[in-house]
Here is the input.
Amino acid sequence: MRKRIDRRRWSFVYAVYGVLFVLLTAGYIGAITYFTGFDTAVGWASLLFVLILLMLIFALVRAMQAETSDSAVTLNEIVDRAISGRSQSRDTGYTESAASALEHKVTRYVELSSSNEHKLEKEKSRIKALISDISHQTKTPLSNIILYSGLLEETPGLSEEARGHVASIKDQSAKLDWLISSLVKMSRLETGIIAIRADLAPVLDTITLAVSQVYAAAEQKGIEVRIHCDSGVQARHDAKWTTEALFNLLENAVKYGKPSGGSITITVQASEMFTRIDVADNGTGIPEGEWNDIFKRFYRGKGASKVEGIGIGLYLTREILTAEGGYIKVSSAPGEGSVFSVFLPAL
Here is the structure.
């Protein structure tokens, strides 16, 4: 479409200049003939001069078009080589022409981009190795602490005070294990190490899997979980990581929900562009001034101080949904509960 507009515009310009040239030529020949008393020889000489001038102008325009076309072809080849990752060849040579200067700048830019990309890949590999080392080096000691705490808890003759201390060690070790796991996931998402593969699939299975991970805690706290979703509703998402995102929302709904008489309602609505998943609860709620802050890393709201947490869950949820091409928003009020709306691409 753009090319058609450019061609029409240049055709109009050529037509205007052509008409002006014909008018000026006719006026010039007419004036010369008039001032020389309508001398035929002068008129023919003037016409011949104009024709020669016209041919020279035409030849000049054609030469300029050919040079422009050659420059465009050269630059197109340079860009194609840059896109394909092939090495740049000096087609124009080291001349003082604008095309040569531009080719050298493009070549230099491609070389710098390739160098920076290589450095980024090396840095990413180094970060990946560091994260793997941290995960591996901390996993074994924590597993041992949890294991030995369990064995110590089963030791006969252990006093109640000692059993309380052992239970605290197990509890804190489990929290530390979860924290390290969350930090590793967060780092991998931020550095692009984790590849999220979004495919068109039913969302009911993903929601059911996320609910199954919090159902025991919700039942223990007396919170009812309801799902309103048609089995045929689909969305483009990564089932594993979307389950992680929904689990974080459901876990918060359980933690901040009412001890008894609480409820969590999951409603799914399909539209042309997005599939919307609403996770609604009747818990403590969130002030409007904190709606944007709760998705920040390590942010804890003023009303969340009494509930254990470190402020990673919602941040991870937003990062996962963003990587899938979706987004999340919240609507809430203190004492009236919250509604977290997840939007997943439907196409």
In short: The helical segments are 2-35, 40-84, 98-153, 160-191, 204-212, 215-220, 239-255, 313-323. The domain at 199-345 is CATH 3.30.565.10 (Heat Shock Protein 90). The chain is about 60% helix and 15% strand. Residues 98-153 form the longest helix (56 residues).
